[in-house]
Specification:
Layout (H helix, E strand, L loop, with lengths): L1 H21 L6 H28 L3 H28 L7 H6 L7 H9 L1 H12 L13 H19 L18 H4 L11 H18 L5 H10 L9 H24 L9 H4 L9 H25 L4 H6 L1 H13 L4 H16 L7 H26 L4 H24 L4 H27 L10 H31 L5 H32 L4 H11 L23 H24 L9 H36 L7 H12 L1
Pfam family, one: FUSC_2
Protein name: Integral membrane bound transporter domain-containing protein
Keywords: Cell membrane, Coiled coil, Membrane, Signal, Transmembrane, Transmembrane helix
Amino acid sequence: MHPLQVAASTALGVVACVLALLVPLPRLATCEVKQSCKELGQNVTTRVKLYMKAFCSDDAMSATASVSQARVLARSSSKLYQTLKRYQPSMTWERLPFKIWRWQNVNDNKGEKLQSMEIALRGMEMVVASKSPIPSSLLAGEVKEDLKNIQERVILSIKRVNNSPQPSVTPESDPKKPDECLQTLQEIPETPQDLPFYFFLFCIRLLETITMAKPEENKVKVLEKSKTRSWISDWDSKKVMPALKLSLSLGLAILLGSMFSKPNGYWAGLPVAISFAAAREATFKVANVKAQGTVIGTVYGVMGCFVFQKFLTVRFLSLLPWFLFSSFLSKSRMYGQAGGISAAIGAVLILGRKNFGPPSEFAIERIIETFIGLSCAIMVELVFQPTRAANIAKLELSRSFHALYECASLFGAKASKAEIMESQKKLRSHLNELKKFTAEAHAEPSFWFSPFNFSCYEKLFKSLSKMADLLQFSGYAIGFLGEQGKTKSPQCKEILSNVDKDLKSLTESIGLLAKSFEEITLLKSLDALEKALAKSDNTSWDIELGKTPNPSFSTAVSEPEKILETYLQHCRSVADGIFRVEEGGEEEVKVDKSEVVLSLSALGFCVERIGKETREIEEMVKEVVQSENPSSHVNLHEISCKIRSLYK
């Protein structure tokens, strides 16, 4: 009868979960997604207002305060996006009751469209967070009033995406009405100090374009391709490995736990089973918080049994405040979900028992069994995944540089929009992995290894993320220019080729630099490189001989100002040439002069910032290599030449 009792208890637990989900108010996944989308819409509109306030403010203190408020909202928006990601897969199970009771469902694309607005908001923050002030001459006259009109129209578009209550469309908020402040942009800025103003306006226009864009139809094709996959391909190592690890951990924990105490041996499998994650996680950190949570919950249970020895009902009621406390632990950064659940179960197993002997004796056995189970889990984890998180973070850093190299190379190759978007998506994916493994490496103990340089990896992640944003902005600007120059005369296309050459030169330099950093970060040590070089008897790496020149360290890093100056000169000739061609009578299609100026200026801003981020990335890579080789002198150019001479 024991299996039937276990099945009945499990069914009772499932019923309790469903009741807790519906009573007193239903917390369906659809309701959670709908509420998150509503809060995200409010979050985005508030940040737009704060960024616009900081941009138009004459007081530096007021602008700084607005940026600080916007950063707090940006952090809360990332949590809301995590909530969307968590609950959206569960919405498919709730479509049937929504159809039966005719409730209003949530559009799946709404959260994706709100998330796609983040790139424009990050660009606006990039401008207002920089300490370089906007020239007052650019904000003179009625520019501020025009910007407020644009802000109201953008906010109206965001509310339309989120299906929020909105006023009727007035002539001032008509999307098709031209903006006076944008129409006055007829010349390329003379100095780099004016570029942030133009880039901010470009981000506002980009935000409005995203809000009014139609949902992409590519997902249907991707879904059809995924259905044609063989079921055998689903049985890959990423799905089999977690099941194998869990099975071995549970079996070994219960075996060793039964050898210690046969009546209570199965409790050793409990800490392994709860909060088991299929993905890789910080093993030692999770084991630590599970052990602490179990001990805290067990101590609370023993104290409750001692205080309420003769009152069984009160003992059960004493679990309610502990459940509340455990929920706080689950949401804390120190304990997380694993620690909070362990604390709750630790108290339940003591206070929820009767006629099982003295609670203190069971508590001691329970703690010992917990440590047996956690030790088995750590041992199995080390056997199947012996690679340290620090080494994986280093490998992921190299992969991020390779993805950056591919992304930059596509800009010079005139790739299609789909290819550029796919490369940017790949770069974002590697950066997310880098962030995850960096946090895991920071949490794991160093033991006899050298300490992990967490601060440097964190700075590298931020700089690479900014670089990815700037490349994405460049892609949007090039796309807008392409729309303006699609059906223009051959003279216009010839004029635009000069700008293409500048961008191609810059992206090639960035690509070569990223390729060099990819090779450098893959090095095990500088001593190993010297030994490999000595065995190959290759001396062509000598910089003075000039046999292996590395152009990547001479353009994007050392001369970003010169590149920007040349680019702005070509942009002026482009704008003047296009406008002259149009005035000469060759008006196949009307050219939007403000769009051309705005896009070219936005590209200029990206060129300037890419140069700065490149120099910062070089310094951080040098610091990483130096921390891994403390007794060696680090010269990245020299190291790159040695690597290229070794593998050529």
